[in-house]
Design a protein that fits this description.
Blueprint lengths: L3 H6 L10 H26 L24 H13 L4 H35 L9 H15 L2 H8 L8 H20 L12 H8 L6
Length: 209
């Protein structure tokens, strides 16, 4: 194994010592220096053990906003400490493990969302040929009553906006809003059926002004 410092510390091979005794002394000193250098190199190359605390970063491909569960982090740090892994090696294994888990979670979310979409399209109540119309009704309900937090939740990668029961509920709310507006502002007011004047005012409100 080549040692970059060895050539600098040793005498050039073209120089021949005139005194045999001094040549032996030089050889002995060179051998001792080489041994000391080798020992120093081996010490420097020895891998470091486990640090006092591990600090794991999200691996490449996992968004920064994705937070690793604290229990998973602590369990992984404990296992790395038992193996006496230095920070670099522990991070490398952490990257591979977390990347695989994150990829699997994304695949599962996509699969679940696709399954919900298929169920919604085939739903006998709001799906089929009337799906687009009913989705429009549901979106009106969300626009009128939904908060920013609800819209973010429905638009999130979790795919809850595709869940058949969520769509069913929003369609019912949207239809209830439309029916209430169609009845008009007098809805909910009881009128005596025997009072013809009151009935006339309800049916023809402009005529009573």
């Amino acid at each position: 194994m080549a040692e970059p410092l060895l050539a600098t510390a040793a005498n050039p091979t073209s120089e021949v010592p005139t005194d045999p005794g001094s040549g032996d002394s030089s050889s002995t000193e060179t051998t001792e220096q080489t041994q000391q250098t080798d020992k120093g190199t081996k010490t420097a190359e020895e891998p470091k053990g486990a640090p006092e605390t591990y600090e794991f970063k999200n691996p490449k491909g996992v968004p920064k906003e994705v937070q690793i569960d604290a229990k998973i982090h602590d369990a992984y740090a404990e296992a790395a400490r038992e193996l006496d892994l230095p920070q670099e090696k522990a991070q490398g294994l952490f990257d591979k493990t977390m990347s695989a888990l994150h990829g699997r979670a994304v695949e599962e979310q996509s699969r679940q969302s696709a399954e919900w979409i298929a169920q919604a399209k085939a739903d006998p109540d709001f799906g089929g040929d009337k799906l687009d119309e009913n989705l429009g009704i549901a979106k009106k309900a969300i626009t009128e009553f939904g908060s920013d937090g609800l819209r973010e939740l429905l638009d999130s990668p979790l795919g809850l906006g595709n869940h058949p029961e969520v769509i069913r509920f929003m369609v019912k709310v949207g239809k209830a809003i439309s029916e209430d507006r169609f009845v008009g502002g007098n809805a909910g007011q009881s009128v005596d059926p025997t009072d013809e004047a009151a009935q006339a005012r309800k049916l023809y409100p402009s005529a009573s002004k």
